[in-house]
Amino acid sequence: MRRSHPLILGGGPAGSATAITLGRNGTQPLIIERQRLIGNALCGGFLSWRTLQQLDRLGINTEELGGHAIDHVRVFAGKLMASAQLPAAAIGLSRHRLDTIMLDHALAAGATLEIATVRNVEGASVVTDCGNIESDDIFLATGKYDVRGEARPKSGGNDPTLGLRVRIAPNSGLTALIGSSIELHMFDRGYAGLLLQEDGSANLCMAVRKSRLAEAGGKPGALLTELAAANPALADRLAWWGAGPEPDAIASVPYGWRALDTRSGLFRIGDQAAVIPSLAGEGMGIAIASGIAAAKAWNMGGGAAAPQYQRSFAARTKRPVAVARFLWERGEQPWSAGFAVRTLQFAPSLANLFAQATRIGDQ
Ligand SMILES: Cc1cc2nc3c(=O)[nH]c(=O)nc-3n(C[C@H](O)[C@H](O)[C@H](O)COP(=O)(O)OP(=O)(O)OC[C@H]3O[C@@H](n4cnc5c(N)ncnc54)[C@H](O)[C@@H]3O)c2cc1C
């Protein structure tokens, strides 16, 4: 059996942030990533000002990311709309671009990348489809996907939340509609986030309860048609979608879950550490912050530092995750979503308050 020290499972933002931070301290980890096509993760592509600061800390020049500038949030509920300025500049960026750049930095810092799928983690043993690896220092960064042996508990009861994504090719009509906004279209048991990315394409990412999708016959395309019929602004935007392929989907997103503790030698990072409801647009900021914090903890105390890191990171994510969960639970109910949009029309500064409260703080 091979030995690796340390070993990073997953090459998304959390895994790469860990590798870059370890590399800067002279350690060369092995990253196991299952996808050859880097950065296909289902994600809204909103990089908040905090996420941009975290990237800056990693030595990634955020000017060169080339993202689409975003300075406003627009919230829709039925025929209602409220608009507010964001507290600071954000960008829309495809995951392909972000993950490729981050992984390139990780490799430049000395990490090695191996394309393989992790099947199972048992103590210090990691089973992959390309053989077994032994490591006393494992960083679990498989994001939205659980690994046998270290899976997160199921959440959402009988009505879990699913993720869906539609990509819309660049076109001037949609560019004029969305402009420099991140749009949140609230509907019964879900929301759709919409923004423009670096190449002018639009990314429409949704979180929706399983029961709502079931009402549309379990077909994402049919759900979008129903939502367009009930939400005029969403209909205007979806008109540019055309008959594309069926949306991408992921099952059961455990919104609100946080790892409160771990065992020695296992650092849980990214979505394997905390899952903030995605309408906050801070999942990637949390992923990068956790990678930096875990790598620093390992530099100081090795694998034995994992439990202390996990408890401290759980405390750091408590407020943003709780506030985002509060907003998500109100937003997925039509009456409270409508009330929230009306309130924002009169007091747009509230959006600023919530935007700040859902960001990951400094250590
Ligand atoms: C609907 C939706 C919209 C979202 N929108 C936003 C947004 O706009 N802004 C934002 O900041 N956050 C958003 N998020 C959250 C964000 O996508 C995640 O928080 C972030 O991707 C977490 O990063 P990560 O590195 O932990 O995991 P991931 O990005 O999921 O990366 C995990 C990596 O591990 C690899 N992997 C998985 N399983 C295995 C395995 N068994 N073996 C080997 N490799 C494996 C994957 O291929 C992937 O490359 C959204 C989430 C959802 C569900």
UniProtKB/TrEMBL annotation:
Residues 7-117 form the FAD-binding domain. The keyword Oxidoreductase applies. SUPFAM superfamilies: FAD/NAD(P)-binding domain (SSF51905). Signal peptide: none annotated. GO terms for molecular function: FAD binding; monooxygenase activity. Keywords: Monooxygenase, Oxidoreductase. InterPro entries: FAD-bd, FAD/NAD-bd_sf, Geranylgeranyl_reductase. Pfam families: FAD_binding_3 (PF01494). The keyword Oxidoreductase applies. This is FAD-binding monooxygenase. It comes from Sphingomonas paeninsulae. The lineage of its organism: Bacteria, Pseudomonadati, Pseudomonadota, Alphaproteobacteria, Sphingomonadales.
